[in-house]
Amino acid sequence: MDESVEDKARAAALAVGIDLPAACVPGVIDNLALLASHAALLDRFLAEHPEI
Amino acid sequence: MTIAGIAADVRAGRCRAVDIAREALDRLRADPYVAVTQVLEDRALAEAAAVDAIVAGGGDPGPLAGVPYGVKDLFDVAGLPTTAGARSRIDAPPAIQDAEAIVRLRAAGAVLTATLNMDEFAYGFATINAHFGTTRNPHDSARIAGGSSGGSAAAVAGGLLPLALGSDTNGSIRIPAALCGLYGLKPTHGGLPLEGVYPFVDSFDDIGPFAADIAGLRIATEILSGASLAAPVPTRIAILGGWFADNLADDMTAALARIAACLGAGTAELPAVDVARSAAFLITAHEGGTFHVPALADHALLYDPATRDRLIAGATLAEGTVAKAQRFRTWFAEQADRLFDAWDVLIAPATPCAAPTIADPTILVGGQKVPARAHLGIYTQPLSFIGLPSLVVPLRDCGPLPLGLQLVGPPGGEARLFALAEKLERDGVSGGWPAPGL
């Protein structure tokens, strides 16, 4: 596993008050990537439609 | 027996609510579908006896007299912990009072008999529950029932109960109703009482009933809403294309074509539905995750890993991203409003295909196999995203397994959806699939 990705996941969880157990790390990383893809689609659309 | 049939017999004194409750309790105890989480024998017999006492005294217990029903395990039931399908809540403090929906059904004579299985914290479309088990589809026990209200759907589809309540945030009533061959209603957002229902995502949460016939669904909905739902049969009907026509199995494509011909329906398209689904995903993950942060910080490892990791990731989403999703939501709702200037009812598939197998709970989206648990809602999620009412009708003659369509109206448009569903049932196009063995 990419250490920087794992560190980012741990830091993001800690920022909301969750000390991420090791068992959660792979699943959280996968879900962060999925959410990032949804956020990217939303960002692209809003960039193309500044009136929204 | 139908909801209306049971109530008519009990009100007329032709049969006793206690006898009907006992028969339902026997079926629930023998549940072969992993639909039931708790059988409420003492409570059911007491409520049924109270109904019989009213009849014996010359009174009218109400339009649901003696009708046994169950609730998804996230409705507060006085004296019981509300588990929301979670192992971590089995020892939660018992609810002090019933959820408002239960109060209303009881006042109409219905008899609460069971709590029913669900995805943990309602976060899934499959009712694959790490603690309470995977609910099986009564029409093929090797397949999922859909979720997250899968226990409610399986209990009705399997003939254990004539009526059940579920909740729907992104499709959790509509998907299991479609996969199990039932009618199911997701109301206009906030249209039915949410008091005493364990929350998932405030922006989208709703409750609604399941039934095998449209008359029964109407009675339950009118009791829950406290309103009569009368409207003429709508005539301006369109099939939603674009996003809603992609990824369909052949049986569903054929079914939509038959419906379009039967109704003389036009076609309509909503813009940017893919973005709507993504925005719904983001808001769901963030609101759901944020609600669970205190519990996740305390006992994350008691969660089902598939639920837990989604919730944690969602909790970390930046507020700015969520604000953008909400901004898009306002715009998307305006686009839907414009469509309803031209059309009374929009029709969309509830799912792309029939129920996936439990051994391989995946579906094809964009030619890729993806988990059904997260993706079965591709056609439901963009519609509940903007709070539209959606009534699922089960199709007849659509193949070996149930399929369902969403009848979608503008906010507050439930009455026209019932009028159209009743026409489709009269015309023999839709109808609840008979329970196996009945």
Describe this structure in words.
The complex is a heterodimer of chains A (52) and B (438). Chain A is mainly alpha-helical and 52 residues long. In chain A, 71% of the residues lie in helices and 0% in strands. Chain A contains two helices and no strands. Chain A has helices at residues 3-15, 25-48. In chain A, helix 1 packs across helix 2 (25-48). The termini of chain A are far apart. Chain B is α+β, with helices and mostly antiparallel strands. Chain B has two domains: 3-225, Alpha-Beta Complex (Amidase signature (AS) enzymes); 237-426, Amidase signature (AS) domain (Amidase signature (AS) enzymes), CATH 3.90.1300. Chain B contains 14 helices and 17 strands. In chain B, the strands form four sheets. An eleven-stranded mixed β-sheet of chain B has the order 1-3-2-8-10-9-16-17-13-11-12, with helices on both faces. In chain B, strands 4-5 form a two-stranded antiparallel ribbon. In chain B, strand 11 (237-240), helix 8 (250-263) and strand 12 form a beta-alpha-beta unit. In chain B, helix 2 packs antiparallel against helix 3, helix 9 crosses helix 10 (305-315) and helix 9 (273-299) packs across helix 11. Chain B is globular, with a radius of gyration of 20 Å. In chain B, 60% of the residues are buried. The interface between A and B is medium-sized, with 29 and 32 residues.
Total tally of structural domains of chain B: 2
Q: Which structural class matches the secondary elements of chain B?
A: alpha+beta
Element-level helix/strand string of chain A: HH
Largest sheet of chain B: 11 strands, mixed
- What is the oligomer described by this structure? heterodimer
Into which percentage range does the β-strand content of chain A fall? Answer: under 5%
CATH superfamily of the largest domain in chain B: Amidase signature (AS) domain
CATH fold-level name of the largest domain in chain B: Amidase signature (AS) enzymes
Average of per-residue pLDDT values of chain A:
94
Distance between the termini of chain B: 10 Å
Spans of chain A of 5+ residues with little confidence (pLDDT < 50)? none
Number of helices of chain B: 14
Strand order within the widest sheet of chain B? 1-3-2-8-10-9-16-17-13-11-12
Protein name (chain A): DUF4089 domain-containing protein
InterPro entries (chain B): Amidase (IPR000120), Amidase_dom (IPR023631), AS_sf (IPR036928), Carboxybiuret_hydro_AtzE (IPR014087)
Protein name (chain B): AtzE family amidohydrolase
Domain Amidase (chain B): 21-228, 312-417
